[in-house]
Design goal:
Shape: flat
Strand content: under 5%
Order of helices and strands: HHH
Number of strands: 0
Distance between the termini: 37 Å
């Protein structure tokens, strides 16, 4: 019983340390966009830092390059996402199937060993 409590305590310490570290990383990432170093991030500073990413995302969604995203482009994006999700799902299923077959072969070899 003492061993279980000790293991639980160690696991709790490690997980809380990881949460604390991830929170600190987030704060420092946000403060990187503080251009005037006043210790605060204004909306304009935040917007300027994320404008390039927003522009890239918009260009990716604007398939025909006309500067607008219409329903046809949205449908194309939806179909691409669906196709990608299906391909990912099939790849995951194939990997699981291969792992299962390998494990099964190992069990057979081990069973017939005796």
């Amino acid at each position: 019983m003492k061993l279980i409590c000790l293991i639980a305590l160690v696991a709790l310490i490690f997980t809380s340390a990881n949460v604390y570290a991830s929170m600190h990383e987030t704060d420092s990432e946000i403060m990187k966009v503080d251009v005037n170093n006043d210790g605060r991030v204004s909306f304009d500073e935040y917007k300027a830092a994320h404008e390039e990413r927003m522009h890239t995302r918009f260009k990716r969604r604007d398939v025909n390059g006309d500067g607008f995203i219409d329903l046809a482009e949205k449908q194309v994006a939806k179909e691409k996402k669906h196709a990608k999700d299906q391909a990912d799902k099939k790849a995951e299923q194939k990997a699981l199937r291969e792992k299962y077959q390998d494990d099964r072969k190992k069990r057979k070899k081990h069973f017939y060993k005796y």
